[in-house]
Structure formats: structure tokens, C-alpha cells
Amino acid sequence: MNLSESKDFLVTPASLKEIRAFSREIFEKININENLKDELVLAIAEAAQNIVKHAYKNIDSTKDKMEIKISLKDSELEIGFFDKGRPVDTANVRHRKIDDVKPGGLGTFFIQQIMDAVVFKEGEKPWINHLVLTKKI
After folding, report:
1. What pLDDT shows up at residue 102?
2. 85 in Cβ contact with 74 (< 8 Å)
3. Quick check: helix, strand or coil at residue 3?
4. Which of 19, 75, 102, 104 has a CA positioned 20 to 30 A from the CA of residue 1?
5. Beta-carbon neighbour count of residue 67 at 10 Å?
6. Under 8 Å CB-to-CB from 44, ≥6 apart: which residues?
7. For residue 45, what are the β-bridge partners?
8. pLDDT in tens, the chain (137 residues)
9. CB–CB of 79/69 below 8 Å?
10. How many domains does the chain have?
């Protein structure tokens, strides 16, 4: 089965629920098993939250949108995130130490554990950032 669907979301914390629902709906269509579906939705939600929190830190994003594109081709799932926030400095993208017990800071860790590849690309105009998550299913 091949599939490609995308949707724009406001870059706000309130959109995270919509993003999870959109992702879950797509994964229902491709009949992914429940455990993997939950993991993928978690990875997508964490990536989207990082965009809201970091790419738009101190930026009024009430009208800005990010696009999320989910594609499946030849059993490779690709999830693309496109935004117009602050350009990503990949040297600063890392999770906190696992043994540092406190809330938050592990989204990047979870994403890297769930996905097969996490790649930051330069965004094609009009986008500034393009994050690509891939997973063989």
C-alpha cells in the first residue's frame, strides 16, 4: 500500500491534540499494529512539541503553521515536518542524560529510539526547517 497525506497545523500547544488525532487516523488506514501505532504517534507528538517549544521560542506563532506529511512507500514510512520557525542548529538537538531524573527533555531520546532515521534537511521555500523521520514497517 502506498499513501501520502499532509495537513497544516497552527504552531501552538493546543494543536498537539489535533496532530496526534491526524497521525492516528493515517495509521488506522494503513493498519499498523497498536503498539507501533502508539510509538509512532508519540514520536510525531514529541517532534511537533519540539517545533512549538524550540523553533518558535519567543516568536508569536499564533498565525504560523507547520505542515506534517505522512507517506508510505514500499513499507517505508516517512514523516515530514515543515516549519518557518528559527533555523535548527543540529548541534543543539540532544536529549538530557537519562539518569538525570526530572520531567521533560527526553522527546529526542524517544524519537531516536522509535524511528530508524531522524534527519534535518534545509527547508524548501517557503519552509525554513524540514525534519524527516523514517521507519521500516
Report:
1. 45
2. no
3. strand
4. 19
5. 15
6. 19, 20, 23, 68, 79, 133
7. none
8. 899 999 999 999 999 999 999 999 999 999 899 999 999 999 999 999 988 887 887 777 667 899 999 999 999 999 999 999 888 655 554 544 555 544 455 667 889 899 999 998 877 788 888 999 999 99
9. yes
10. 1
pLDDT at 128: 85
Its sign, for the CA torsion 28, 31, 32, 34, is positive
Helix axes 34-50, 16-29, angle to 10 degrees: 150
* Helices vs. strands in the chain: H and E counts, helices first: 3, 5
Task: Report the candidate in 19, 129, 132 with the shortest Cα–Cα distance to residue 84.
Answer: 129
* The three cell numbers locating residue 114: 522509535
- Parent domain of 129: 3-136
Closest CA to 75 of 30, 44, 114, 38: 30
